[in-house]
Write a structure and sequence with these properties.
This protein is an alpha/beta fold. Helix content is 27%, strand content 28%.
C-alpha cells in the first residue's frame, strides 16, 4: 500500500499546496477541541501525513505518528524533532508497546478497506477513558451530491453518510462526547477555509467526532 501513497499521490491530490491546504489554524482548531476533554498524555496520530498536526500537539502530548506512506513519514521527519516517534507501517503491523490517551485519525478511515480490523487495532492501543478522534468526508445532506462530484480521490473506499460513521462504533465500547460539522473549501487555489462547528453539522461536507472509550 505504501507505493499507492507515494510522492505521486500527494502531488496529484495537493499539487504544491499541501501546507496551504493544511494551514496551522486548521490543526490548532482540531487540537482545541481535543484539549477540552484531554490536556496531556500519550497521543498517536494514525495517518500522520507530513506531521503538521503532531507539530502542534507535541506542546501538550507525548506524540507518536504512523502512516503507511514512507514518503509522508520522510516529510514528517523533516518537520518534527526526534522526540516524536514515527512509523511507516500499517497500524496492525507496528510493534507498539505504549498505550495511548488520545488516538486521532484525520481523513484516514475512509481509505481503509478493513475497517473492523483497523478499529480493533485502535481499540487495543487506547486506554480506557481515552479519546478516539476522527474526521471523515460525508456524502449526504444538501451538499452531498457536490461532495461526491468533486471527490476525485480514488483511494476513498468508504463514501458514506454521517450516520454510518456515528453508528460505526459499538456503544458498549465508546461514548460519543462530541460531533460537529467541518466546513472546508479550497478557493481560487490559494485560500483554504476550514471551520468546525456544531451548527449545521447535519449539512456539512465532513464531520469531526470525539469518542471516549468506556472499557
Amino acid at each position: 500500500m505504501s507505493h499507492i501513497f507515494g510522492s505521486r499521490y500527494f502531488d496529484t491530490t495537493y499539487g504544491e499546496n499541501y501546507e496551504l491546504r493544511n494551514p496551522r489554524y486548521k490543526w490548532r482548531s482540531f487540537l482545541r477541541k481535543i484539549l477540552k476533554y484531554r490536556s496531556s498524555g500519550n497521543l498517536l496520530e494514525v495517518g500522520c501525513g507530513f506531521g503538521l498536526f503532531l507539530k502542534e500537539a507535541r506542546e501538550h502530548f507525548t506524540c507518536v505518528g504512523s502512516d503507511i506512506s514512507e514518503y509522508a513519514v520522510s516529510q514528517a521527519r523533516k518537520r518534527l524533532p526526534d522526540d516524536v516517534i514515527l512509523y511507516s507501517e500499517v497500524l496492525g503491523q507496528i510493534d507498539i508497546h505504549m498505550r495511548f490517551d488520545v488516538i486521532v485519525c484525520f481523513d484516514v478511515l475512509e481509505h481503509i478497506a478493513d475497517l473492523k480490523t483497523a478499529l480493533g487495532n485502535i481499540e487495543h492501543l487506547l486506554h480506557p477513558g481515552g479519546l478516539l478522534v476522527f474526521t471523515v468526508p460525508v456524502y449526504d445532506g444538501p451538499v452531498g451530491y457536490l461532495v461526491q462530484k468533486m471527490d476525485q480521490d480514488e483511494t476513498h473506499i468508504h463514501k458514506e453518510d454521517r450516520y454510518f460513521w456515528l453508528k460505526c462504533f459499538n456503544g458498549k465500547i465508546y461514548n460519543t462526547v462530541y460531533w460537529a460539522g467541518v466546513w472546508r473549501y479550497f478557493l481560487f487555489k490559494r485560500i483554504y477555509v476550514n471551520y468546525v462547528s456544531h451548527i449545521g453539522r447535519r449539512w456539512a461536507p465532513a464531520i469531526m467526532v470525539i469518542l471516549k472509550k468506556l472499557v
